[in-house]
Design goal:
Rossmann fold, seven-stranded mixed sheet, Quinone Oxidoreductase, Chain A, domain 1, binds NADP nicotinamide-adenine-dinucleotide phosphate, alpha/beta, 16 strands, 10 helices
């Protein structure tokens, strides 16, 4: 079943080889055709995430480059159209799809299938795709999945309990911001490690206290935390262990190979690896966002033509929350000019 207005040729950003933002090329491509169980969505807004820039540049955590080439493509990404999170309007559905119909606004996360950096994207009905609540703005909806799904999965694997003390390293990034918010909603007392410039943002997200990483040593004070959630790779399981109470958990979200190999040390646990992308988590995030309990910070909204400028900004490692890219200027107006 298809919307009569679906074009046959669309524009999409391609990664031609691993490298800087200059490897991105805007190309005309055939609109993807929904197979059995697929939903085709007209993309209204997407993001350039830290994951997109990692794949584009093959700038992966220590020890992961060869594994990365095997998984992603040896000399260039096997899937040349990046982009994992987006919001838009269902344009067509493949055979067997029962939950979605053309015309319906949705939020989706494609994970390794990617493909959101084009005018239309495919997502399996069984993947993370949920109706978009009417109360949710387009930019907020586009930015809900990447940080939110990662934070939800890691906090679940950590078994977060109300009253626990949680340290979030990198609280002003997309993942860190979601960790602060969701841990606080889960009843934890959260301390955020940020630069002084981003301390207010962390407090607004729900941090009870902040540590300025340029002025204070977050490793000072032994056995202080129940959970250390490291969204930067500033620590390792070995260096985080003395900071953790007995039974404490280190969340190695930006982990290198080392933290994937050692899972237990002196009564502490290390939780690492790719986060699960559960449809029910995206539904829970959309519900929380519709009630105003979660709002992913959005640093800027780029026009689609300026997507490489969003990659350049993500490359700095300094972005505050998410970089949204709009393909529907009316529904989601850009906040930066085309030249970035
Ligand atoms: N395991 C998984 O499944 C999974 C999923 C998603 C992401 N990740 C990984 O998680 C990491 C974080 O992703 P992200 O999207 O949140 O990144 P991001 O948005 O690019 O993070 C940028 C933020 O990090 C802060 N920052 C940089 N260095 C810092 C430091 N030493 N201490 C504290 N804050 C620091 C910056 O703030 P300042 O400018 O104030 O320093 C900036 O606001 C990435 O390595 C990504 O690859 C893993």
């Amino acid at each position: 079943m298809a919307d009569a207005h679906v074009p046959t040729i669309i524009q999409a950003w391609h990664v031609t080889r691993y490298g800087g933002p200059e490897v991105l090329a805007l190309r005309d491509v055939p609109v993807p055709r929904p197979g059995k169980g697929d939903v085709l969505v007209r993309v209204q807004a997407t993001t350039v995430s830290s994951g997109d820039r990692r794949i584009r540049s093959l700038d992966l955590p220590p020890g992961m480059t060869t594994l990365g080439r095997l998984a992603l493509g040896w000399s260039r990404p096997r899937q040349p159209i990046l982009g994992t999170e987006f919001t838009g309007i269902v344009a067509a559905v493949g055979a067997g799809v029962t939950r979605f119909r053309p015309g319906e606004p949705v939020i989706a996360f494609t994970g390794l299938r990617q493909g959101a950096h084009g005018a239309y994207a495919l997502v399996s009905e069984r993947a993370a795709i949920v109706p978009r609540p009417p109360a949710l703005g387009i930019a907020d909806a586009a930015a809900l999945g990447f940080g939110g799904l990662t934070a939800m999965d890691y906090l679940r694997r950590a078994g977060l309990r109300p009253g626990e003390e949680v340290l979030v390293v990198g609280a002003s990034g997309t993942v860190g911001a979601a960790l602060v918010r969701l841990a606080q909603l889960g009843g934890a007392s959260v301390t955020a490690v940020t630069s002084a410039a981003n301390a207010d943002m962390a407090r607004q997200l729900g941090a009870a206290a902040t540590i300025d990483y340029a002025a204070e040593d977050m490793k000072a004070g032994r056995e202080r935390w129940d959970i250390v959630a490291d969204a930067v790779g500033a620590l390792s399981f070995r260096t985080a262990c003395p900071m953790l109470r007995d039974g404490g958990r280190y969340l190695a979200i930006a982990s290198g190979l080392g933290d994937l190999l050692v899972r237990r040390r002196a009564g502490r646990r290390c939780i690492a690896g790719p986060a699960a992308e559960r449809p029910e988590d995206l539904a829970a995030l959309a519900h929380l966002a519709a009630r105003g309990l979660v709002r992913p910070p959005v640093e800027a909204v780029y026009p689609f033509e300026a997507l490489p400028a969003a990659h350049a900004r993500a490359d700095t490692g300094r972005k505050r929350g998410s970089l949204v890219v709009t393909l529907d200027d009316e529904a989601c107006p850009p906040t930066v000019r085309q030249d970035g």
